[in-house]
Design goal:
The chain is an alpha/beta fold and about 375 residues long. Helix content is about 30%, strand content about 25%.
Length: about 375
């Protein structure tokens, strides 16, 4: 459990103890205004993927910005339970729920909120239908479509049609439509390659919808996972919703694809050592920033490159201009490479405007893997 040293509101953010996760409110509000205004003008709407930040307060700000379906998406049942407890009433779990224990929890949660789940196998459907029937409820189900070798799902065509028909034959389940899970963008993926992956995902989804409709099956929901081409996805014929979450806080990984948005989440770290010229060590390591997909970037000074993280430390290479400006005890701001692995490390995020602390928000769904 994180035990922060709380500061009076209005205190300079540089006085926070380190490492700390902070959100720049002006940048966040810019991102919400930019993206949600776009979705105000499209037929397809946004479903915020709130497992990216795990923060219910931020989720409600996203919903209040409009242009959404009125609900959120998460990746685990545990996250859904937390967001339901914080007042979210329309939740899609964009992941398989399989075990008997989880299915019992799922059915209990469906009594509190409007829950939609994904499925990609007849055996999963059967267990889900039996659990829902035992508790006298009905579950909305999206058939998950296979769009990428790193994800689960059904190939668009006969396999997806057969699964949708099976759902229609089960009284305790309701076929709602189709969904493609967020496709992980590898660290090396960039430019045209990333665009190609995103367009392939869209093509396979529209192909799946056409196959279902040709079989006489109505499709209410066509949900696209996190995509760098959210504007193109929203304008694609047949798509009804876009699950997206990184846009709100914007990490270093997605920033090159969305230059119209502003990085809003940063980690404050302290220089703890200058062991030799050209090298600095800080106190924000893997346990504070995450390193699974890439290294964080220093944003407060130029001429500094992150070269590696251990559990508790970050190693920085300094060029000739940066060396005299970096001293032991100095604080620096890091931009996380991947938001999901960073925010999950904190119990709260400090909310800052123009360098001053305004409030803090709990990251209430962190650690909810089950």
């Amino acid at each position: 459990m994180e035990r922060p040293i709380f500061k009076p509101l209005g205190t300079s953010a540089d006085e926070l103890d380190t490492p700390s996760l902070a959100v720049e409110l002006d940048a966040l509000e810019h991102n919400l205004s930019t993206v949600h205004t776009f979705f105000h003008q499209t037929t397809a709407k946004l479903r915020p993927l709130v497992s990216i930040h795990c923060c219910p307060t931020l989720a409600h700000k996203q919903l209040a910005a409009g242009g959404t379906v009125g609900g959120v998406a998460v990746m685990t049942l545990g996250q859904a339970e937390v967001f339901a407890a914080y007042g979210c009433r329309d939740i899609t779990i964009a992941n398989s729920v399989v075990t008997p224990a989880k299915l019992r929890r799922l059915c209990a949660l469906a009594r509190q909120a409007d829950i939609t789940v994904v499925a990609d196998h007849p055996a999963q459907l059967q267990r889900m239908a039996e659990a829902a029937q035992d508790q006298a409820i009905s579950l909305r189900v999206l058939v998950q479509i296979y769009t990428d070798a790193r994800q689960s799902g059904n190939a668009p065509g006969p396999q997806a049609v057969a699964l949708a028909q099976a759902i229609q034959q089960m009284p305790s389940l309701t076929f709602a439509g189709i969904s493609a899970a967020p496709v992980p963008m590898e660290t090396s993926t960039a430019g045209a390659d990333a665009d190609s992956i995103a367009r392939q995902q869209l093509h396979r989804l529209t192909e799946a919808r056409a196959a279902l409709e040709n079989a006489g099956i109505g499709v209410q929901v066509v949900s696209v996972g996190e995509t760098i081409l959210y504007e193109e996805a929203a304008r694609t014929n047949g798509v009804t919703e876009v699950m997206a979450g990184v846009y709100a806080l914007l990490d270093a990984h997605y920033a090159p694809y969305w230059p119209h948005l502003k990085p809003a989440a940063h980690v404050l770290t302290t220089v703890t050592s200058r062991p030799e010229p050209g090298l600095a060590i800080t106190d924000a390591g893997q346990k504070a920033v995450g390193i699974d997909l890439g290294l964080p970037q220093v944003t407060s000074l130029s001429g500094i490159e992150t070269t590696g993280l251990s559990a508790e430390h970050c190693r920085l290479r300094l060029d000739a201009l940066a060396q005299p400006a970096v001293n032991t005890g100095q604080k620096l701001w890091l931009r996380p490479w991947d938001l999901g692995t960073c925010t999950n490390l904190y119990d709260l995020m400090w909310v800052v405007r123009q360098g001053k602390i305004e409030t803090s928000w709990p990251v209430a769904a962190r650690g909810q893997y089950r």
